[in-house]
Amino acid sequence: MWMGAGRLDTAGASWSVPLRTAPSSLRPAPLHSWACSSFSCKSQGSLAVVVAGRAQPSTCCHPAGRGPRLPKVYCIISCIGCFGLFSKILDEVEKRHQISMAVIYPFMQGLREAAFPAPGKTVTLKSFIPDSGTEFISLTRPLDSHLEHVDFSSLLRCLRFEQILQIFASAVLERRIIFLAEGLSTLSQCIHAAAALLYPFSWAHTYIPVVPERLLDTVCCPTPFMVGVQMRFQQQVMDSPMEEVLLVNLCEGTFLMSVGDEKDILPPKLQDDILDSLGQGTNEPQTSEQLNEHVSGPFVQFFVKTVGHYASYIKREANGQGHFQERAFYKALTSKANRRFVKKFVKTQLFSLFIQEAEKSRNPPAGYFQQKILEYEEQKKQKKSREKTVK
After folding, report:
1. What's the angle, vertex CA 200, arms to CA 227 and CA 374, rounded to 5?
2. How far apart are CA 295 and CA 199, in angstroms?
């Protein structure tokens, strides 16, 4: 059985959560053969969150019920990655599943009738459970979910900081990237982590965490892609006609193929800043949340320094429609190296989709990226003030 959640990224939007039995054509596939973006589903009775939209789809699964299980799945499909919120909904579904299917439907009806929370806001549902009475369930949407369901530890175990930086540089210019590894979990975790480094931008091209054998021809596509391939298909991949691809061997921590200019894509000064930040405190014990923040932070700061001034170069008409002033935007950068990079970056789909959303919105979206932009601008003001005082 599944719950399909429609587009949920606007404040006040209604939940779209039909609940019905999956078609019989979908049932025969055993769940343990499905490769999720973070790990493989091991059990037949599962709960799943599938996020699919303009960026890459990703999946989170965990077992449903206890004891003997039927081949049954509860699934939420959404275009946004509120994994914590959706996981809580699935926990509530699982709790009701163990009582009776009839108890699930009133809960889902209450969910449909409630407005989907805006970023950082909470919606409270009232639900009745036999023998337990009425309870109130609070569902909070995170203000910014860019690190939800991301694990950088696998990427760090497989590659050096310099290699991660080159993968990031290739992804920023929307090149073709192939990851090779033995394990499905290593592939999916590393590719998901690599895509997460692009925040606040989203990979908008072919994205397959684990490519099945029948789709190996994907590596011959002339368009951008980011895919994972099991090591047993390495020779088949290398014998394929490919152009300008970065082929990453996660088992050996090496690049088997590259374009050759990966070290020159990003401005040298900003590359050094990223590497310096990544190297600080890496030997100290960190929680997974601290590690994610430590790895993601320098890359977010890179975008703050290169394109964080974008909002000032969106000119609006009386009706509120914005128009991005591209030439004035990149000319505003004083560093020639930064300007050369940004002139290339503004031509990518990554940046175009980001700017299209910004042109539609009257105000910059609240979130982690905007917070870092404001902090950076405040730091520059304080620096100028100190320099004036010294003079």
Report:
1. 160
2. 12
